[in-house]
Amino acid sequence: MPLYEYFCQACNGIFEELRPMREATEPVPCPQCYKDAGRIMPTSFSAFTFRDGYPRRIPDDNQFYHLGKKVTKPITSARPNEHPEINKPQPKKRKLKGEVTEIQDMQVAASKGDLTDWYGNGVKPRDVPRMVDEGKILRKGTPQRDPTL
Ligand SMILES: [Zn+2]
User: Fold this and answer.
1) What residues are paired with 38 via a beta bridge?
2) Distance 11 CA to ligand 1 centre (A)
3) How many CB atoms lie within 10 A of CB 69?
4) Is the N or the C terminus of the chain less surrounded, counting Cβ atoms within 10 Å?
5) In the predicted structure, residue 70 carries a pLDDT above the cut 70
């Protein structure tokens, strides 16, 4: 199969693909941003440079692209959805004002012995935020004892 050159407009990158001649004019997904890139003739770009093994059109803005977003480093992982700059672990989400009030309400209820977990066990006020974080179901109501016990 012949080697063809493709240019990705989204990330200014040039790459080569081995393709059957009859498919040469079809767009190819860019290896960096996965957008469709069209074929270019070898003479279309008189100036391009290589950076980290990737041909780039000049001027090279020293940026890489990944899934349509600008990043400063090309992806090193084999898994395209795990670029470290895009899939950073999210900082713990701040609680919304409504949630804080709700927790305070539940703590008040808990201090009166008027809050139970899903199993009907009493909840201590200081355990409320942790239990809410853990997604445990809390409900108001005095702990119910099973009358048959
Ligand atoms: Zn691209």
Assistant:
1) 7
2) 4
3) 13
4) C
5) no
Cβ < 5 A residues, ion ligand 1: 8, 10-11, 13, 30, 32-33
Ligand 1: centre distance to CA 90 (Å): 26
Pairwise CA distance, residues 84 & 81, whole Å: 9
CA of 30 to the centre of ligand 1 (A): 5
Query: In angstroms, rounded to a whole number, what is the distance separating the alpha carbons of residues 140 and 147?
Result: 19
Question: What are 130-143's pLDDT values in tens digits?
Answer: 888 887 777 877 76
| CA–CA separation, 85 and 75 (whole Å) | 9
Q: Are strands 36-40 and 3-8 parallel, antiparallel or unpaired?
A: antiparallel
Q: How far apart are CA 29 and CA 12, in angstroms?
A: 13
